[in-house]
Amino acid sequence: MDQLEKHSYDVLIIGAGGSGLRAAIAAHEAGLRVAIICKSLFGKAHTVMAEGGVAAAMGNRNPHDNWRVHFRDTMRGGKFLNNWRMAELHAKESPDRVWELETYGALFDRTKDGKISQRNFGGHEYPRLAHVGDRTGLELIRTMQQKIVSLQQDDARRAGMPSGAHDGRLKVFAELTVTELLLTPSGAVSGAFGYWRETGRFVVFKAPAVIIATGGIGKSFKVTSNSWECTGDGMGLALRAGSTLLNMEFVQFHPTGMVWPPSVKGILVTEGVRGDGGVLRNSEGKRFMFDYVPDVFRAQYAETEDEADRWYDDPDHNKRTPDLLPRDEVARAINAEVKAGRGSPHGGVFLDIASRLPKDEILRRLPSMTHQFKELADVDITAEPMEVGPTCHYVMGGIEVDADTAAAARVPGLFSCGEAAGGMHGSNRLGGNSLSDLLVFGRRAGEGAAAYVKALQGSYPVVPQVQVNECMQTALAPLERADGESPYVVHQELQQVMNDLVGIIRRADEIQHALDVLEKLNERSRHLAASGPRDFNPGWHLALDLRNMLLIAECIARAALLREESRGGHTRDDYPAMSEEWRKVNLICSLSADGRSVEVVKQEMPPMRGDLMALFSVEELKKYFTPEELQHLPAEDRTDVERKVEVS
Amino acid sequence: MAQGHFRVWRGNAEGGDLVDYDVEVNEGEVVLDVIHRLQATQAGDLAVRWNCKAGKCGSCSAEINGRPRLMCMTRMSVFAPGETVTVTPMRTFPVMKDLVTDVSYNYAKAQEVPAFAPPPGLAPGEYRMAQEDVARSQEFRKCIECFLCQNVCHVIRDHEENKQAYSGPRFLMRIAELDMHPLDSLDRKRSAQDDHGLGYCNITKCCTEVCPEGIKITDNGLIPLKERVVDRKFDPLGVLKQKLTRR
């Protein structure tokens, strides 16, 4: 066995995307020693892919906007399955988190009076997304990356170093993958085990608090906008450590991914195209979204093209275009149009911005989309429509956490934020709410972990050597098998089965079939073999990542089989209606005692606080809640009350 | 579907060589797709960095037929039918393995640039800037840190010894970006010249030519920064004022 590299920190953050970096800033500001682990190079995490913007009710473009409106939109988008406390904190705190980025050096696009500009997006009542063209995610991650460097520079100055940075109190470990959390005999966090990607050498981190900020799971699906890193690592780590995942059946298929050529299928086309005036059309040239407005949203969306087009300039007197319905609705509509034979030549629909905006304006607002289509598909989006279709984009489910502190369920010392954590977005996330989620709950996780560590008053848990030995054996196994299954083949089969059988439209028999296939893949995954040396060996890395991907795929499939209704990012062909009874139910995944299978149980959601209920009209609540849940509410229409609240 | 012929550099810090592969190529694919197919079918341990596969993260930088490019944005259709495609790691940085290089030079240089210094007394939420003023720095913030500009810059590509004194186009541009930030409160001109080696750049514009984001690094970043350094250094009134106010 190797000479082990060992490190000791107060807070260990796994994941260096937006939420991990924001957590690091918060934990460092609380005075603790912090390590950040990134699977890739620093600054390359999946957050760079976010395009449209960060949602925050600053009211810069429309003064009627405030946290209550944002909260309402978020709950509606999530079909009221959201953890309402998280949605409340998110709506209240996101403006401060965005303004804070400006003090770190971020440069958002501006309004005429010099404030941060805000754009329209699906499901948001007012223009709410702070943005930088269509590369907002890049701005976010670079800003926080540079903030981390500046904190290291401050530390250096304090330590009396002449120039440059000092990483003694805030260190980034780049290209390092964590394969297991380490625990005390009583089940609290004591650290983590991982390997350097470059050398394959093992590292042990000793830390009383670990924040999981590892992002999503998209790489379990064939058509996805996600990068290779999105393998559900953190969720796998949490499950194996004894924590729980919540509502894993809710997977967001972004309605507009590229569909042609095949090699780029799934790459994201920002919702900003529609926010800025782009419309969806079928092969007959018809704006089909008008046919797909569900009853629960009928009051908020335009019925005619004329009204929808007037809304861009006069939103106070017209209703918005159904092109900007929440993502689950638009994705299902596109799916239905293609199935009905009204799709584009390559199996998508048309997204038209060329006939809606002057060329210069498209170039200014959507430079990265223009570039992407020209380079990868030979399509000039200023002159012709794009072809788009649904792509696996985001998981609403995730680690079950406490809203205020981001503490993960059942494991003391474990915290989670960002896409890896569940609850905030309910059954469907609104565009723009992800970047704000990262900032709000990244900070809360950093502060939550810091408070936990301070309460320990220096008595830190030890790392048991026997666990470390087990971790080494598990990690080395694929390299030591002379011949066995190719990780690449098992991965491709996993992606295919999830895409075909647990995708955008689901049925009991198909999900059951998927579970059978997954069981076989699980068996085969115990015989994975990776040839070659330990240094930078992608086949070996994939073999280790597959353990998490298969586990998370099983969580998604089992929860999807259990939930017999359709809501947000979970559509059951055999249960097409939304059920009031299922609305109050969270599905909780945990690992069985022998560690070989996933168990899912129902757990009732705590009732929403009265003052938050009062932000909606009783008429609207009736569409989602059971009569028993509403019996204590006064019967009158709440619209007047609501207006008064907003004015105050 | 067609067959393509690839030559890929395989090896590590101790040495290596070009290895020949015949591999399937499909319509619309980019070089990175073909590299991935090689991994899945012929060379499971072929090391390559990549993340987004959409030209947004800047991870998959390499030299393709000698030209610094992103593998995810290089369409196979740019090559003539039957043309051999040679993929080698970036030359300016030490090889780790195969197509992966040690780019830590860049992260070290990033740490030497003093951070954005917010204007004292301005509360968060009170920042007001005009779009035309932020647009100049925004151009540079499009940078995806692929480090192709650093790789191609002859000041360090052929002169290892300059790496100490010279931060390269990426980080000179970062200084220009902060210098043009409407609310930054530091003077960065002297440091650009003295600490980051702005004088080494002799504006051959190789960096601009390879930038996958189309940033005009030289024209909009480095030349204006040079001009301001010169203004500061050789302006007689300025020098006098500096001398008078120093004590």
Description:
The complex is a heterodimer of chains A (648) and B (247). Chain A is α/β, with parallel strands linked by helices and 648 residues long. Helices cover 37% and strands 14% of the residues of chain A. Chain A has 20 helices and 20 strands. Helix content of chain B is 38%, strand content 16%. The longest helix of chain B is centred in the last third of the chain and has 18 residues, at 217-234. Chain B is elongated. The interface between A and B is large, with 75 and 62 residues.
Keywords:
heterodimer; A: 648 residues; alpha/beta; 5-stranded parallel β-sheet; 20 strands; 14% strand; disordered C terminus; B: 247 residues; alpha+beta; 5-stranded mixed β-sheet; two-stranded antiparallel ribbon; 38% helix; elongated
Write the layout of secondary structure elements.
The complex is a heterodimer of chains A (648) and B (247).
Chain A lengths: L4 E4 L2 E4 L3 H12 L4 E4 L16 E2 L11 H11 L6 H21 L13 E2 L9 E2 L5 H23 L11 E4 L2 E8 L5 E8 L5 E5 L2 E4 L20 H8 L4 E2 L4 E8 L13 H4 L3 E3 L23 H7 L15 H13 L9 E4 L6 H7 L1 H11 L8 E10 L2 E2 L14 E3 L16 H23 L9 H16 L6 H15 L6 H18 L12 H25 L17 H4 L1 E7 L6 E7 L5 H4 L4 H5 L4 H4 L8 H9 L1
Parallel strand pairs in A: 1-10, 2-3, 2-11, 3-7, 11-18
Antiparallel strand pairs in A: 4-6, 5-6, 8-9, 9-10, 12-17, 12-19, 13-16, 14-15, 15-16, 19-20
Helix pairs in contact in A: 1-4, 1-11, 2-3, 3-11, 5-15, 13-14, 13-15, 14-15
Chain B lengths: L1 E11 L2 E11 L5 H11 L19 E4 L2 E4 L14 E4 L6 E3 L2 E2 L2 H9 L18 H11 L6 H5 L1 H4 L10 H13 L8 H6 L11 H5 L6 H18 L1 H11 L1
Parallel strand pairs in B: 1-5
Antiparallel strand pairs in B: 1-2, 3-4, 3-5, 6-7
